[in-house]
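Hi F.,

I've been meaning to write this up properly since the lab meeting, where we talked about keeping a consistent format for the predictions we share between groups. The idea is simple: the sequence comes first, exactly as it goes in, then the structure tokens exactly as they come out, then a line or two of notes. No screenshots and no reformatting. I'm using this chain as the first example so we have something concrete to point to.
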Amino acid sequence: MSANSLVSGVESIHQNPAVRPQDDFFKYVNGKWLDESEIPSDRSSDGAFMWLRDRSEKQVREIIEELSNSPAPIGSNAQKIGDMYRSFMDEERIEKAGISPIAADLAKTQSITSVEDFLAVMGDLESRGGGGLFYTFVNNDDKDSSTYITYMGQSGLSLPDEAYYREPEFESARTGLLAHIAKMFELAGISDGASHARRIMDLETEIASHHWDQVRDRDAELTYNKVTYAQLQELSHGLNWPLWVAASKTPQKVIDQAIVRQPSFFTGIGQMLRNFDRDSWSSWLTWHLLSGSASFLSSAFVNESFAFYGTALSGTPQLRERWKRGVGLIEGSLGEAIGEIYVDRHFPPTAKDRMVQLVQNLIEAYRVDIDALTWMSPETKKKAQEKLNKFTPKIGYPDKWRDYSALSISPTDLIGNLNALAKFGQDYEFAKIGAPIDRQEWHMTPQTVNAYYNPGMNEIVFPAAILQPPFFDLHADDAVNYGGIGAVIGHEIGHGFDDQGSKYDGDGNLENWWTEKDRDEFEKRTAALIAQYDALYPENTPDTHVNGALTIGENIGDLGGVTIAHKAYQISLAGKPAPVIDGLTGDQRFYIGYAQVWRGKVRAEEMRRRIATDPHSPAEFRCNQILKNVSEFYEAFDVKEGDALYLPESERVEIW
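Output, unedited:
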């Protein structure tokens, strides 16, 4: 095999030929890199995704710094981007200000005397971007995709998940949080931080006891509970909704009807507020104001927050450079304004044209595959084909850019800018209620290295930034592109047919289109995949097993993605034999292309956090465990009984 194989798209420089592909394909393709690379000190993971994110970040930085160093008309997107960045990068001003930008709000959180005071202050903080006891967002009604509705869900915790408050393995995180809270109170000049910390931990432990766990929380049917405003008040008796609505500046129409994702959580919170303890809730509100603001205050707060959330919880030794944090802030607040410039500079029309063809071939492969399924009845197949025919692909960037004209940004007031951005974002979301569905809206920016499936719109979305090597290379052989971006496309289409996405019809409505027998057969297959993943543990955290039930949706997406992408590659050949390049067949290059995109490593602390909270499996299993179930992979690399990646045919899971 040639070391210089750019024409094929195979990055052989990262391979470890001492590893047999039949035993560990992940290490065969990525082993040299895994052995020799070090995770940069300012992050918790590294790999193919991160390389593209680095590239995108640098390109976005160039745009932002150009705008921040050039005069622009007041009110223009260029002015807002430049001034937002300047307000964050003005370290001297921020250091001098210390705690003063939030001093008035701290005084309010410490002076509450009643549950009414608490809700009024919390609501006011939420109207300016602060966190609260629950979250809200606006999206299609899951059972009426032609209308918008508000969703409400559990929140109020400082640790990543409710399990962190009860599981023995997270004891060190709980101990660390107590010390971190006490230190933050000390930095803010608030006495007796240890007592505040103990009250907050006790209160959050009780809040966590009302949280749904990660597996239950991803169930589309269990989390669909439509209520009227009167029913919401009855459900969470003890939470004064009229007071909160007024304080948070939430238009009444926004919660005239809502979908409550975890009803028992809201009931539990209502009970807690009926037994209101002034000292505990005052400490909690003060803490969440401090913690939520820490990244935008002086360096003492920034460093202390990072020491806990960055280092203790995720294992990252070093805080990112300020420019990187500034770029991330602009991305999260003015993302489409940046995206419009990014696309113009970095996304050639030819890339979009090639992607359109790839997507068409993937959809056609799914069409052929569904017809060929032996376990599904003609009745359900017909419904599946109807859903597939209604898929909407979005590639590169939106056809309509977001209008930021209602937003005002100052070059000298960072906290004020954050408040303005929060209000702008809330107004944007609230305005959807009662308005027609906007099917042109994107929920990722073009410069985001990712992709998604939206069940309520039945759409698959691929931002421009992911359409680069090793995922997609305009100059590379098709085999590697189908193994890379093709499997990503197949994965996102697959979410429409995973354990939750398959509950939605082609119009985006949560509606059962399966026969009972077909659903039972589907769930038998998914149960087998869950069992496979339950037995797995990452190499660097052997004490932590993957949660097969939490990751099943993504695992189905991965398995369907690589299976269908391979079929789409065969369709692209139009009956012609695939060329042999650098001694590799087309199928071999395809699977190498698949393994290349999962090249990555994660710090042990971060791996434990992800396994507890992330529905995606670790990269090594997204490669090896998936391929164990793919018979075409066995043929491509001559995998036989006795090889580590061999799984008896009777145990292989095939869904799509």
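Notes:
The chain has two domains: 19-57+335-651, 111-296.
The two ends are 33 Å apart (CA to CA).

If this format works for you, I'll send the rest the same way.

G.
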